[in-house]
Amino acid sequence: MLLTKLQIEQHNEALLKQHQRNFEFVSGCIPNADALIKKLIDFQVAIPSWALGNGGTRFGRFAGKGEPSTLEQKLEDVGLLHQLNRSSGAISLHIPWDIPKDAGALKQLAAQLDLKFDAMNSNTFQDQPGQQLSYKFGSLQHVDKAVRQQAIDHNIEVIKYGKELGAESLTVWLADGSCFPGQLNFRKAFNNTLDSLGIIYDALPDNWKMFVEYKAYEPNFYSTTVGDWGQSYLFASKLGDKAYTLVDLGHHLPNANIEQIVALLLNEKKLGGFHFNDSKYGDDDLTVGSIKPYQLFLIFKELVEGMDARGMDHTKDLGWMIDASHNVKDPLEDLLQSVEAIKIAYAQALLVDPKKLEAAQQNNDVVLAQELLQGAYRTDVRPLLAAARLKAGAALDPIGLYRQLKVREQLVKERGEHAVATGL
Ligand code: PSV
Ligand code: MN
Ligand code: MN
Question: Which PANTHER family match (predicted)?
Fold first, then answer.
């Protein structure tokens, strides 16, 4: 299901006066509103294919209704999100859940929907039906060379699919690790993983990046072989210039200072991209900004400052992806909320005056430094985001329009109550 231009225009027309009042109030206090709006329009966040259906808990899965059951339908869902906010212009696929049967036709559909193919994700954390060897004791780290080879082959196959679709990066997240002390020789597991990743790295096209995602624990609860940013950084450095660390916000031990990690990885030219989500306890995969919005802002403040210091392009030099999926919301509404939260944090970070902050730091003026950050964070930038959407042809109130048009009801009619998305 797609929206018509007229539906969006009529919706915007009805909200325009109120929007203008809100916008005038905020833009009056911002020196460079036009430049900021331009940056907001350009900033796109990739939607993971596995978030389009209701995610699983560790104990079960409660499917939603009218979920996309084919890859084409997944693209259509992201196309719909992109129509609503003009900020979701990319999809991140997961193999084997999203094997493209006709890459040419998919590329065409993506072009019609104005979507790009973002990072391809491999899956060696589950055994697939008919698979010869099991990943129960790991994949790229496995003690058995044949299992390692199977996992390597899978990753190379994922690159092949990505090439057909025009993607330019591979994200490797490994469940590899151990559940009990003594189960694993840490050094051998690391070296096996490095050798395996090296073979995959060699299969990357020149213009591709490899993202090595880390995670502190789960499904293994004693050790994870790519367990933190230091280990990911080691792999990425040893592999070469095309390999980077990927930061998933939910993959840290409690209270980790993620903004500092981000700042240093950027400094070392090894930050590759993000999986945005939010959490209270662990890898909760909750809606971005729903639990710790100030942390998200602080992360973006480091990103903006670090990227500007290195002359990086905010829109394309890092991979911006969501990795959230859960049970109690309509996944499309949830994704609209997540994209909005990311852009709010980005806009607030753009409000921080780098010169004033630097001066405060130089003077050890701790109070002023905090005031500068919190002044930006406490600015209600939502009218700026709305202005960006209006200018880009999106809806002033994406969730409002989604509900007004009864999109989910339409999708249920089209796809049926029991249509279930493939994924986690
Ligand atoms: C598992 O923790 C996970 O959420 C990782 O974050 C991956 O990025 C994602 O699954 C998809 O493989
Ligand atoms: Mn992730
Ligand atoms: Mn995760």
Answer: L-RHAMNOSE ISOMERASE (PTHR30268)
pLDDT digits (tens, 9 = 90+) for 146-196: 999 999 999 999 999 999 999 999 999 999 999 999 999 999 999 999 999
Is ligand 1 within 6 A of the CB of residue 326?
Answer: no
Question: Cβ(218)–Cβ(173) under 8 Å?
Answer: no
> How close is the Cα of 324 to the center of ligand 3, in Å?
8
Interval 216-227: pLDDT, tens:
999 999 999 999
CA distances (Å), origin 316, targets 69, 97, 322, 371, 387:
30, 26, 15, 31, 22
Ligand number nearest CA of 247 is: 2
Q: Is the ipTM of this complex over 0.85?
A: yes
What is the spatial distance between Cα 327 and Cα 367, in angstroms, rounded to a whole number? Answer: 42
Q: Is the CB of 98 under 6 A from ligand 1?
A: no
CB contact set of 354 (below 8 Å; sequence gap of 6+): 305, 308
The rounded Å distance from CA 400 to ligand 3 centre is: 29
Best mutation site among 49, 154, 173 for ligand 1 pocket (most ligand atoms within 8 Å of CB): 173
Instruction: Identify the three-state secondary structure at position 354.
Output: helix
Residue nearest to atom 2 of ligand 1 (CA): 283
Task: Indicate if ligand 1 lies below 6 Å from the C-beta of 283.
Answer: yes
121 C-alpha vs ligand 3 centroid, how far in Å? 12
Question: Is 173's C-beta closer than 6 angstroms to any atom of ligand 1?
Answer: yes
Q: Which domains does the chain have, with CATH numbers?
A: 5-415 (3.20.20.150)
When pLDDT is cut at 50, 70 and 90, the band that residue 295 belongs to is very high
Q: Which residues surround ligand 2, an ion (CB under 5 A)?
A: 248, 275, 323
CA 366, 367, 373, 374 torsion: positive or negative? positive
Task: State the amino acid at position 176 in one-letter form.
Answer: D
Q: How far is the CA of 85 from the centre of ligand 1 (A)?
A: 25
Q: How far is CA 82 from the centre of its chain?
A: 15
Sign of torsion over alpha carbons 227, 229, 231, 233: positive
Does residue 56 carry a pLDDT above 80? no
C-alpha span between 177 and 179 (Å, rounded): 7
Distance from the alpha carbon of residue 283 to the mean position of ligand 1, in angstroms: 9
Q: Does the pLDDT value for residue 55 go beyond 90?
A: no
- Name every residue whose Cβ is closer than 8 Å to that of residue 371 and which is 6 or more positions away in sequence: none
Do residues 244 and 271 make contact, with C-beta atoms less than 8 angstroms apart? yes
Quote the pLDDT of residue 192: 98
Residue ID of nearest Cα to ligand 1 atom 12: 173
